[in-house]
Amino acid sequence: MSSVRISARDMLYEEPGPKAKRRIRIVTGISLAALAALAAAVIHRFYITGQLDPRYWSFFARGTTWTFLGKGLLGTMEAALMAGVLAFAAGFFLMLGRISSIRLLRGLCIALIEFTRGVPTLLFIYFFFLVIPQFGIQMDAFWKISIPVAISACGVVAEVLRSGVNAVPKGQTEAALSLGMRGRSVFLKVVFPQAIRFVIPALIAELVIVVKDTTFAYVVNFPDLMQNAKVLISNYDALLSVYLVVAVIYIVINYLLNRLSDRIAAKQKKPAERRA
Amino acid sequence: MSISQLLAQYGEEYLAALLTTWKLTAICFLAAFVIGILITVMRVSPIRPLRIFAELYVQIFRNIPGASLLILLVYALPYLNILLSYFICVTIAASLIPAAFCSEYLMAGINTIAPGQIEAARSLGMTFSQTIRRVVIPQALRSSVLPLTNLLTATMLTTALASQVPMNPLDLAGLVSHINTHAVGGVMAFLISAALYCATAVVIGQIGTRIDQKVRILR
Asked: Is B85 buried (19+), middle (13-18) or exposed (0-12) by CB count in 10 A?
């Protein structure tokens, strides 16, 4: 939104004339009225069903409510971070296999990447929640949520990393090789560090998906934000207000992550444009 | 269970589940596409309240987790005396979220059009709606084939939310959880569903790439 570049969006219409201005004013008035009516209808709905009653909302003024929700949020963050780290590690190796010159390994990695990208996270969660215990393997709830979330993210991470590696100019590799560096250290010391900088925004965007997927932690009874919300609900008998607040918390966190990603992307773009 | 046992016992259920997943995906994708276009029109319109409303819509539904939205629809709406069937709840959740992403892709598609083209259309005497219909939309759609293909796959993955509510017939993810809570389905029960999801995703991807190669604007 902050970009100064004129895009097609701003060009669709020029400065409106007096007639168009009047029409815009009228439609603006109508749409304002319609949106106000919508908001009023929602609030009215809340009111007639008694959901505006203070007993559904007053406990949000208590510190204990927020420390409890905060603890759940911490659980969500821990699981999401672990899933993110695992997905990054797995994605890194998948990417290495994907760009390797060994055909069999490359084919295998392509298949694995497509598999993780084409299967819903919930299916992986059911696998760890319902299928793994059938083999007598006991697993902590923490791993039952972070591993499947990581699996379903690692394919995307691999592709993101690969796009970063491809974006590093060939001359970098050639220069490093002509300095006498070996293939592996060229990749690890010259190509990959630059590649990772290119894709940091995309990786943060993927972290948003990871945070969203950890919401399913309640399936495996891991004490995350959603699970703690359930406890609050049974304590105060207030379902609607608690789930609404929890949804807002998730939205704010993911919104901030997306903003961070956009900001880094914009920062990276600027020097590149200046050079061009 | 072996694959033959599973297919003998649950073959029909798998077929029904695959069709349910496909049906949900198709309905939700169409709904998401229509809502996405509406939201995009609002976002580029000169009407400020609509712009703000549409931006708010996109930020909310881009960032809300699917589970959170579904829970609100299924468990919280009855407190407002709004009772919806499970199928409708899943459809709404799996339409509203992809619609936000659809609008983002369409906006990106619009922004690939050089401002000069619109100036050219204006100086040829085209009206606003002519410019939109003949210059902007055709090009924006042509450059958003691949993102929309990815959106179709993402919509299919989102419909797995259906497994979180009692549905009849079950969807592909729900069937895996059903089989494994009633019998020892083992890895195979999971792999069949996973393979069906994956095959659908690969086919969608192939078709999308083919269409993209045909209609892509080479710049």
From this structure: exposed
